[in-house]
Design goal:
The complex is a heterotetramer of chains A (about 220), B (about 350), C (about 140) and D (about 425). Chain A has about 220 residues and is mainly alpha-helical. Chain A is about 75% helix and about 0% strand. Classes of the chains: A mainly alpha (about 220), B alpha/beta (about 350), C alpha+beta (about 140), D alpha/beta (about 425).
Chain lengths: ~220, ~350, ~140, ~425
């Protein structure tokens, strides 16, 4: 079995299963914690609260104007990096192909030049974010091993993806295998660390939006 | 090839230069051959005169060709070149002393030829092999004259100057080795050690590669530079993808999505249709087939990666390289159930730690 | 090799012409001959045609018939030769640009000359019909 | 759950192992899906620091809001997280130490107004202010509240029903004295009343005029109303201290008193936290829906102005309005004060970030009751001062006595001459008959 076969076969299957089990575990372990009933008369009805939750999911993508001057660097870097990742994952031809083969869904891909450019920008943003994390006093205080591991596990797929598309070092098969394995490592870690925020962000914002809408508070 | 055989061993002491002159091929022809071979082997053009001079001084080289667990496709391919091509000149340089499919002799006469050739050229002959070698049950699945391929290889390889493993079966085991590999087939390099081996994989291999390797070996007395899989770098150094004339479409993200869509008609990249070009090392895209006429991608089909180890088991021919095999709904369901059960157990344990009542009661 | 798609024909041809000029300067300085194997380069047919056009034709054009036909001709630039070899089936097996005062393949080889001389002498002493058997 | 009967209000002493264990249990006591989700989704982006007045003013990274709950989060990750048992097994989540608890006392109390500005900036939607409140509960049960007013007041409130230990008789007397002094008819402990206003001890002690103002307005409206001395305490210092039992006791006292007189509307005074507590937690403490509604005084005023029950003269003046975090951002009552100011013809010069994104005065969340926190509080106050000055207004209105007091004190400390006034009193002073 070659490295590529391993990456595409057992490793892929194992990482998908770990991802599914881990995500289910984490979500259920949170959802089933003790809840207390709320008896206070809400300011708004349920439809408005659901609307508030949905609105918060969207509105928190862009911070309030008053916060911008102090967090612009953080917002621009992380937004660029996240949008870049989304473009690469959902716009790159090989990725669409994989999704197509797994789910039957497909859509047009972006030109390779665009993906290459976006990959470069994404990589640069990630490096800048790491440097920031290593230097900013607040981030240094907050950062844990999870932060650095998660960074690495996202960085590696981007890096190997760039090397793969340029075929700069090593053969296509080796780079492809490394790229796939790096993604699989990320999938395996996702349920256990901060990468889980990819899903929790929507739950967290939605729940806050609903709770705050209940109180009529600012979201 | 028959020519080479017809001539027998009469001219064995003669140099190749003299022999060719006698046949009306002068030194200009030899130099031209050397130029073509240097080009094919990706050697600098300046090497050609030296190569021609070496060839002129060289003696014909005895070649013993053994066919093991194979389909004769490799031999067919080498014979199918239209005459007279430059590649066939190479057969004037060798003395093909044993080749079961081509030789007139049969039975004990053939056996005798083989033993005579081995005895006469001990340590100097080239051993060419096509087909894989069954190893299961002492190699009983392929026999010649009652002897297993395994035993023959061991014996004949011992006195060879170098070994040419021709075709994917001889090089890597090929289709016989594909799952479930009932005969325990393997390639030559899995059984022979301590001898120079050159693999010329392909199902079938590109004929020009064999010509180039032979010309190099006869000119310089050694094998050309090889990659980590013992393949001549000059022919296997780049992937099909790297040399493909459709590469520009890949770079632009223009892909055929099916064999009859607009992209396919426009000749766009076949990556999505399962082309294995990016992972396949071979010279098809540059040398092409049938005297440079075409190659699979040019005729609209993706590369199937036939020159790579285990190509038969490396996913479907029409499965894109980007694809992976999903875990299946059943396994996914089990994983989700495990996760839900574990998560629920954790949550229930955690509930005991939170306050059951809003009041801080003892 | 990887990025050839990003160069257009003009850029490639210019690059080759600069390389040829470099070979000529070495030829002038110390008599060093040079050659470019065009088949070894990933050039499109249109690019080859453009290169051929830019080089032009010079004073000499020679046909060679040995294991197929070959054409050796000087380009519009003295010392730069366009050499194209085909095999018996007409397929091009080598295409070179050579920087040399005269391509080596045009010179008669000593061994060939020796053989020719024998044949020549033979042809003076015997009848025409028997002289042909030597070939 | 065994809670220390009377936690030492001091807490300056190094906490014992038993206290640490109590804190751990206290931290976990209220964690439900929402808190777990919040704790699980933090990505350590550090943006909350940039919303916090204490970090912005000092640049000290320890004042990063999410860092202030570190021991609380650690307790969760060690004991309750989805994979807590694995981390515990691998020794990746150590116990919270006594020393850490000591260190975090300052972070959880002195340097957090629970103003919720960080909750507004968090890209993950984490309500950090709410987590701080839960973390304070753990500190309280371990007897780790600051050795200061906050702890002392909370204790007194729990045992007597008022932070200042006021008896029913004393309160009745005080209310009647105020009625006499300001010439207002006072309704106290009447058997039936539709509207029941609650009382903030700050008002009682520092701004008695505001009690007169509310009486005057309710009389003007012709309402059936009454103070109830058997359940009046709107402060709920217990809430800010983290005392769940005390918080519940105070809250239920107010609810039962209102139920007893058949109230339809319970009015919360000019106070921030008390509104949050009563509006959203009283029903939960009561265990079912309340038979009356709860409004903050500005909401009642805006409502009365709108339906004509309250009629006012114009009082043109040049002023700005300071939002109480708990009423505007956290309480959803940003609009009412502005309606009132408009009705009175006040020329309102809004501060930068007014409304939802306002900055705390610096005293919220009980910080005003911690003496040693004053230097820090003053730094937060500097923002407010700068913002008020930038508006060019002569006067600052607010509808929270806590804010009013902090602004008064801050103004005095820094020789600031801006007048800080109550919105309630403004209305009371300009009623038109």
């Amino acid at each position: 079995m070659t490295l590529l076969e391993f990456a595409r076969g057992p490793a892929f299957q194992a990482s998908v299963l770990i991802l599914i089990a881990g995500v289910a575990w984490r979500l259920v372990a949170i959802i089933l914690l003790r809840r207390r009933p709320q008896f206070a008369e809400p300011r708004h009805g349920l439809p408005a609260r659901i609307g508030g939750g949905a609105a918060t999911i969207l509105s928190r993508f862009v911070p309030r104007r008053t916060f911008w001057p102090r967090i612009a660097v953080s917002v621009v870097l992380s937004a660029t990096f996240h949008i870049g990742l989304a473009i690469i994952v959902f716009g790159g031809a090989p990725h669409i192909l994989l999704i197509h083969q797994l789910t039957g869904l497909t859509w047009p891909s972006l030109p390779r030049g665009v993906i290459s450019l976006v990959s470069g920008v994404t990589l640069a943003c990630m490096i800048a974010l790491l440097i920031r994390r290593l230097n900013h006093p607040v981030l240094r205080l907050l950062s844990t091993a999870d932060d650095y591991l998660s960074w690495l596990l996202v960085f590696l797929p981007v890096l190997t993806g760039i090397l793969l598309s340029g075929e700069t070092i090593g053969g296509y098969a080796t780079l492809l295998a490394l790229h796939i394995i790096s993604v699989e490592l990320m999938m395996i870690w996702l349920p256990f660390g901060k990468l889980m925020h990819a899903g929790l962000v929507f739950a967290g914002r939605g729940l806050m939006g609903m709770n705050f809408s209940r109180k009529g508070a600012a979201t | 090839m028959q020519n080479a055989d017809d001539k027998g061993n009469a001219n064995d002491d003669e140099t190749l230069g003299a022999m060719l002159s006698a046949r009306g091929i002068g030194r200009r022809g030899l130099l031209k051959f050397a130029i073509a071979m240097a080009s094919s082997l990706a050697l600098p053009p300046g090497v050609a005169p030296l190569m021609a001079a070496n060839l002129a001084k060289a003696k014909r080289r005895s070649v013993i060709w053994l066919s093991f667990q194979e389909c004769t496709g490799c031999v067919e391919t080498l014979l199918r070149s239209s005459s007279p091509t430059i590649d066939q000149v190479i057969f004037d340089f060798i003395s093909l002393d044993y080749q079961e499919a081509l030789m007139a002799a049969a039975g004990t006469a053939a056996e005798k030829t083989l033993h005579d050739a081995i005895a006469a050229n001990k340590g100097e002959y080239l051993l060419a092999i096509d087909g894989s070698i069954p190893t299961k049950d002492s190699g009983v699945y392929s026999l010649t004259g009652g002897r297993s391929n395994l035993a023959m290889l061991k014996e004949i390889a011992a006195d060879a100057k170098a070994i040419l493993a021709i075709g994917t079966c001889a090089a890597f085991g090929g289709i016989p080795k594909a799952f479930p590999n009932p005969t325990g087939a393997v390639g030559v390099e899995d059984l022979v050690s301590g001898k120079p081996i050159v693999n010329i994989p392909g199902c079938p291999p590109v004929p020009e590669v064999l010509s180039g390797v032979l010309a190099y070996f006869i000119s310089f007395g050694k094998l050309p530079d090889l990659d980590e899989r013992k393949r001549p770098l000059a022919y296997f150094g780049a992937t099909i993808h790297d040399q493909c004339y459709r590469r520009a479409f890949y770079d632009q993200g223009k892909f055929a999505h099916s064999f009859d869509d607009e992209g396919a008609r426009q000749g766009w990249c076949l990556f999505e249709l399962g082309c294995k070009g990016p992972t396949t090392h071979n010279a098809c895209a540059s040398l092409k087939w049938n005297n440079g006429t075409s190659f699979p991608i040019q005729s609209g089909h993706g590369c199937i990666g036939c020159s790579e180890p285990d190509f038969w088991d490396a996913g479907g021919f029409y499965t894109s390289l980007a694809g992976g095999s999903a875990a299946g709904w059943r396994n996914a369901g089990i994983a989700a159930a495990v996760g839900i059960a574990g998560g629920a157990a954790t949550a229930l344990a955690a509930r005991n730690k939170s306050r059951p009542d809003p009041e801080d009661k003892p | 090799m990887k990025n050839y798609n990003f160069l257009d024909d003009d850029q490639l041809v210019d690059a080759l012409l600069v390389e040829i000029a470099g070979m000529l300067s070495r030829l002038i300085a110390d008599g060093e001959e040079g050659a470019i194997d065009l088949l070894g380069l990933p050039l499109s047919p249109s690019c080859v045609a453009e290169l051929e056009r830019r080089l032009g034709r010079g004073e000499i054009s020679v046909g060679l018939d040995a294991i197929g036909l070959s054409e050796i001709r000087e380009t519009g630039f003295p010392g730069v030769w366009w050499t194209q070899h085909a095999d018996g089936s007409g397929r091009v097996i080598a295409r070179l640009i050579e920087a040399t005062t005269i391509p080596a393949i045009l010179r008669a080889d000593v061994e060939d000359v020796k053989r020719g001389q024998k044949l020549l002498l033979a042809s003076t002493h015997v009848a025409c019909k028997t002289s042909r058997s030597a070939s | 759950m065994n809670i220390a009967p009377t936690p030492p209000a001091g807490g300056a002493i190094h906490p014992s192992e038993e206290q640490v264990a109590l804190a751990m249990r206290g931290f976990l006591a209220d964690i439900g899906p929402a808190s777990a989700l919040a704790l699980d989704s933090c990505i350590h982006c550090g943006r909350c620091a940039e919303a916090c007045q204490f970090y912005v003013q000092t640049g000290d990274p320890r004042y990063t809001p999410i860092h202030k709950i570190a021991p609380f989060k650690q307790a969760y990750e060690r004991e309750m997280g989805p994979f807590a048992f694995v981390y515990k097994l691998l020794g990746l989540t150590p116990k919270v130490s006594a020393g850490e608890l000591m260190q975090w006392q300052e972070l959880l109390y002195d340097s957090c107004n629970m103003c919720g500005r960080c909750s507004l900036i968090c890209p993950m939607g984490i309500d950090i202010a709410d987590l701080v409140e839960q973390a304070r509960h753990g500190m309280y049960v371990a007897g780790m509240t600051p050795p200061d007013f906050l702890g002392v007041l909370a204790e007194k409130e729990k045992s007597t029903g008022s932070p200042f230990g006021m008896t029913t008789q004393q309160l009745q007397d005080a209310l009647h004295d105020i009625g006499a002094k300001y010439d207002v008819v006072m309704h106290v402990d009447e058997a039936q009343a539709e509207i029941v206003p609650t009382i903030s001890s700050i008002d009682l002690k520092t701004y008695p005029s505001s009690m007169a103002a509310i009486a005057k307005i309710l009389n003007h409206m012709g309402a059936s109303w009454s103070f109830r001395t058997d359940g009046f305490d709107a402060d709920n210092v217990a809430l800010t201290a983290g005392d769940r039992a005390g918080q519940r006791k105070i809250t239920l006292g107010v609810v039962r008193a209102a139920v007893a007189c058949g109230a339809k509307t319970l009015v919360m005074p000019e106070c921030g936290h008390s509104f949050t507590e009563m509006r959203w937690e009283a029903a939960n403490a009561y265990g079912k829906n309340l038979p009356f509604r709860i409004v903050q005084i500005t909401e009642l005023l805006a409502e009365g102005l709108a339906n004509g029950q309250i009629r006012v003269n114009k009082a043109p003046q040049n002023a700005t309005y300071h939002d109480a975090c708990q009423l505007s951002r956290r309480g959803g009552a940003s609009a009412a004060p502005r309606v009132i100011l408009q009705s009175l013809g006040v020329d309102l010069h809004e501060m930068e970030d007014a409304g939802d994104a306002n900055w705390c005065c610096g005293g919220g969340g009980g910080v005003a009751l911690i003496k040693r926190a004053q230097p820090l509080r003053d730094k937060a106050f500097a923002i407010k001062k700068r913002q008020v000055e930038a508006t060019g207004a002569d006067k600052v209105f607010t509808s929270c006595s806590g804010c009013r007091q902090t602004l008064d004190h801050g103004g005095k400390a820094t020789g600031w001459n801006k007048e800080v006034a109550s919105l309630l009193e403004l209305v009371a002073d300009n009623l038109r008959d």
